[in-house]
Amino acid sequence: MCGIFGYVGSRINAGQMVIDGIKHLEYRGYDSWGVACKKDNEISVAKEIGKISGVNGEDFAFHSSQAIAHTRWATHGGVTELNAHPHLNEEGTIAVVHNGIIENYTELRDELKKKGHIFLSETDSEIIPHLIEEELTNTQDFASAVRRACQRFEGRYALLAMDSTSQTLVAARTGSPLIVGVSPQDGYFIASDIPAFMDYTRTVQYLDDGEMVVTDGKSILFTDIETGEERPKREIEITWTIEQAQKGDFEHYMLKEIMEQKDSIARAVNQDEDQILTLANAIRNARGTFLVGCGTAGKACMASEYFFSVIADHHVNFAPASEFKLYHHFLQPESLLIVVSQSGETADVLEAMKVAKSKGAKVLAIVNVEGSTIEREADYSLLINAGPERAVASTKALTGQLAVLMLIAYAMADKLKDGKTLLLETAAMINDMLNPRYIQRIQDIAELIKEKEDLYIIGKSWNYPMALESAIKIQEVSYIHAEGFAGGELKHGPIALIEEGTPCIALVGNDEVTTDILSNTIELKARGAHTIGVAPERSEAFDEWLKVPDAGTAQALVNIIPIQILSYFLAVKRGKNPDMPRNLAKSVTVK
Ligand code: G6P
User: Fold this and answer.
1) Distance 269 CA to ligand 1 centre (A)
2) pLDDT at position 583, please?
3) Could you tell me if 187 and 260 lie in one domain?
4) Are 353 and 380 a contacting pair, CB within 8 Å?
């Protein structure tokens, strides 16, 4: 996590530009921010605790054509101004912004301390400018010094470095994303994600792992960090627009993205049919299919266990990506790993891919961000086409992931057309559902329960992973203690938590488990719970009823939507900013 952004070129307001640009990367972290601008062979630095969105870019409008900026999600060292990036060497001649973790930093710092370097922060990142400075005693060339320093780092990182004398911006990556924006008239932009520079260019080049780039604003060179060999790069045009990545008339990205599900589900469903059939075949022919993801994407994987079982009569295995390493005993060259990720950059997912590949297994990626590391490193990939998702709490990506996984399950059952029709009908029902009256009804329920400190959600079948997802949504934005359970598990422990008035949400469909989940809801009500049913039909089990359309096997997509809206209003009514939940970041590029 952490967002980094740098520029070198012909524009003379580099400081203002990187400050304005990095505001678009705040979803990657927002503990503190900092900027370093080169001006007349001197580097001037500003850094502060807090969110960069409140900072006025015009304050940095002085003459400068080279700058780097950072927005932080703390890993090593607390949230202090000293720990904020950029970090510099003692003389202030080398500035670095960094995302990731240098795992061997203690050893490197001890070595540098012995050579007289003095460190001011508690971060691993501060060793980088010091090591570059040390390497400059072996080479005159700044870029070569950065290369030599990078060759000594262990861990996953992306960094930008500049010095006070050369007009050189150097970037390197191993594990964390970095993308170059190319503009013939303006120069080169290098950032953790594309929105940082989209006001200037839509032409990009991706750095791969183990690569570095050196640019003076006029030309650029991609090389392998270890060997120095040149790496040829293609220029790629981005197809989505900056408007799609902005809030528009909405107060928060989260609500905007929830509402976008009116269209995004249909975009996910309209996949190339031959590709879906090929993937269905790959699953059919695999000896063991595993699905992994983290957070919300993991809940989509878990739901797909039910999709593949009920729709395709086929067994697949889900594991949270961070646990998958321990499954390596089950992997063989004929195994298939399906990874699901919105960002396409999640470190634990990349790690799972590495494990599968080391056993010769093939990897299929279902991702949202085109050109992301996971998409590029997988053997096959499918895009869910949700458009940029900026709110930390994932919403439209989830329904896109669920739709694509269901489509593949239908294709395996030789019913691709039926699956597509059902999902497009579901998308149309969701469009109708997202009307102002419905949203007001959910707001009213949020008003009713906003002061509660505990909340439970139950579901069965695919509504069980959706109950877990509901809990994540409520926890992350409203900070209410929320937990999801399989309805049948209540009587084995969780029911002891129910007190008079405890809000309990039941996710219900119209299927073979409806009677069971309604009985579970009645069991809760009998213990004093205030029950809220999300269901196609009214039931005496519910104190409150949030009507949802009957979507059959696609019910998971429909049932999660009122909960996303409820989470949003719970956050807002409790005075929290749903787009920037404490301690969280959207893209988790550290293990
Ligand atoms: C973070 C985000 C979640 C997301 C998870 C997986 O925890 O806050 O919203 O579900 O990472 O991210 P991915 O990009 O791999 O889907």
Assistant:
1) 21
2) 79
3) no
4) no
Q: Which of 299, 473, 525, 586 is catalytic?
A: 586
Final residue before a domain boundary, out of 434, 452, 467: 434
The phi, psi pair for 164, rounded to 5°, reads -80, -15
What does the pLDDT read at residue 363? Answer: 97
Q: Dig out the tokens for 350 from the structure.
A: 């990349």
- Across the range 95-110, mean pLDDT stands at 94
- What is the per-residue pLDDT for 226? 96
Q: Calculate mean pLDDT across residues 86-104.
A: 95
Q: Which atom of ligand 1 is nearest to the CA of 296?
A: 10
CA of 42 to the centre of ligand 1 (A): 39
| CATH, residue 473 | 3.40.50.10490
Strands (DSSP E) found in 258-397: 289-293, 317-320, 336-341, 362-367, 380-383
Determine the residue of 472, 588, 589 to mutate for testing ligand 1's pocket, defined as the one with the most ligand atoms within 8 A of the Cβ atom: 588
Active site residue 2: yes
Tell me which of 346, 372, 392, 405 to substitute to probe ligand 1's pocket, judged by most ligand atoms within 8 Å of the beta carbon.
Answer: 346
Query: Of 382, 404, 434, which residue is a domain's last?
Result: 434
Total tally of structural domains belonging to the chain: 3
Which tokens sit at 118? 């003095």
Q: Does one domain contain both 481 and 459? A: yes
Known catalytic residue: 450? no
- When the pLDDT of each residue in the chain is averaged and rounded to a whole number, the result is 94
Identify which of 23, 82, 93 has the alpha carbon closest to the alpha carbon of residue 57: 23
Tell me the whole-structure pTM to 2 decimals: 0.84
Percentage of residues in the chain with pLDDT exceeding 90?
83
Rounded Cα–Cα distance for residues 540 and 533 (Å): 10
Q: What is the pLDDT of residue 156?
A: 86
Query: Could you tell me the residue range of the domain that residue 315 belongs to?
Result: 242-434
**Per-residue pLDDT tens digits for 519-548:** 999 999 999 999 999 999 999 999 999 999
Q: Given the residues 2, 150, 301, 504, select the one marked as catalytic.
A: 2
- Tell whether 161 and 281 lie within a shared domain: no
Cα 27 to Cα 160: distance, rounded to the nearest angstrom:
19
User: Measuring from each residue's beta carbon to the nearest atom of ligand 1, which residues come in under 6 Å?
Assistant: 294-297, 341-343, 346, 349, 392-394, 584, 586-588
42, 153: one domain: yes
449 and 565 in a single domain? The answer is yes
Give the separation between CA 74 and CA 125, rounded to whole angstroms.
11
- Which pLDDT score, from 0 to 100, does residue 28 have? 81
Output the CA 586–ligand 1 centroid distance in Å: 6
Q: Residue 329 C-alpha to ligand 1 middle, in angstroms?
A: 27
Strands 454-459 and 481-486, sheet pairing? parallel
Residues 483 and 581 in one domain: yes
Residue 247 is predicted with a pLDDT of 81
Task: Examine the domain organization and report whether 370 and 453 are in the same domain.
Answer: no
Supply the CATH number for residue 170's domain.
3.60.20.10
Are 257 and 224 within one domain? no
pLDDT, tens digit, 9 for 90 and up, residues 197-225: 999 999 999 999 999 999 999 999 999 99
